[in-house]
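ERR on first pass: missing label on line 2. Operator R.T. fixed the label and resubmitted. Corrected input:
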Amino acid sequence: MVRGWFLYGAETPTVRPWRLTLSVCVCVCVCVCVCVCVCSISSVSTVQVSVLLPACSSAPSHLDSVLNNFSSFYLIRKLPVYELLDRHFLETVVYHGHLTLSLDKDSFEILGFEGKPSRFKHRAATRFGLSTLVSVDLTDSSMAPGRRSYLRLLTGLKSRLQLQTDFLLSHHPGGGASLQPLLSRCDWSQHRPEVNCSVLMDLSCPAPRSCDPHSFLEWLGAVDAGISCENSSSSFLSSFVCPEPSTIHRHALSVSVSGMLLPHDIHRLLQELRRYVEQPRLASWVSMTVRGFADSPVSWSNHEHGFLRGGENFYTLTMFHDHTYQLHLATGAHDVCPP
Amino acid sequence: MKQVEEKEEASVYQRVVLKNASPYHYLKVRLVLEDESTRLSAVELKYFIITGLKSLYGEVGAAVNFDVLKYDEDTLTALLRVYSRSLVKLWSSLTLLGSYQNKACAFRVLQVSRLDPRSSLIIRIFSEVSPFLLALTGNSRDLHLD
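pass 2 clean. output:
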């Protein structure tokens, strides 16, 4: 039986034969309540993926190869947003894409473009609250270079609301050359996702099928953070223990990859983990947690995402030996329920 | 017939949606002291927070049960776990810690800690809050690129 737990989450990667799809996400949120995100239609970049392999002391070679070959990405500092509307850039790089701007009221009025009120209103008396969502389909005919809507947005970003911020930029395989004209005009640096591996000794692992989703996610977070589960009931500091029933594994491997991660890399990792868990092992399950950007203005299926208190935007996929899985998706309380 | 039943069972999919059902909230807090050489142990930190709860909410506040899941003495960073119903009490007492009882100049400039009455401490607490511990362990705001 397959169970899907929706604790409200981050976008699961879809596999589509994108020829050349640009995926860009801002990594620094400008502190004046302006947040810019350019996403491809159905695949949203993620910031970290964590993998837990119980009863494993070292990653198999195939898995290790996948973990160390995630696509590199670029950090572009102080990129004016209007550069993303460059005619050559749109025609040669972007096949599918939305430009999403989350603006405060003043910025929205200065920009002078269509938008809709944010779902996350902080003041009931104000129609637009603290932010407005401007979402532009760059592939729409009305946004073709030279058309009126295109010129209106370009003029707004160039002369009225000169948004400039740091961007994380990446490309799908084979698309690197098309980015060179843009990079040549900017201050940029190339980065590779950071991989961290740790072997955990004598780890108490719960049975994923037997404990409730919140307890299981809490335990996974504790393993990720290096929190000890060995607390007695009389401990002054903490009463946190591993959910029961539990099994002690002599070794467990915890791997995390951080950076701007593309969906096709996540998908390759997913396939490799499936092949790993299908083989007979001491442990009958593996888990993969994928986290999205907390400050992203859009999340599941390009629905609006709000940070609120913690910007929750992740999913955890637990795969079992018998080809079943549990999927926990978590998102903010006011976000739209993931599909 | 048995094979068909097994196939039907394998294809069953169950979806459960839980909203605001997390029993706990998690806070990642950092204590910033004016005197950077001052160090607190985990026990002292917990006691410090309990006194803040007690000063703001009395005995009921002092009875709020929270856990110090992890503590880094070098950076004075702690991961706290508290029941969701007590989050507001804990969070508000952290915010007002050191500035609640003294209203005049001590509130503006200095707050004197009970831990060390000889020194004056300015206490600032930075925090991240989430109903999911997994959200705190991989926050995109902690992504630093050189």
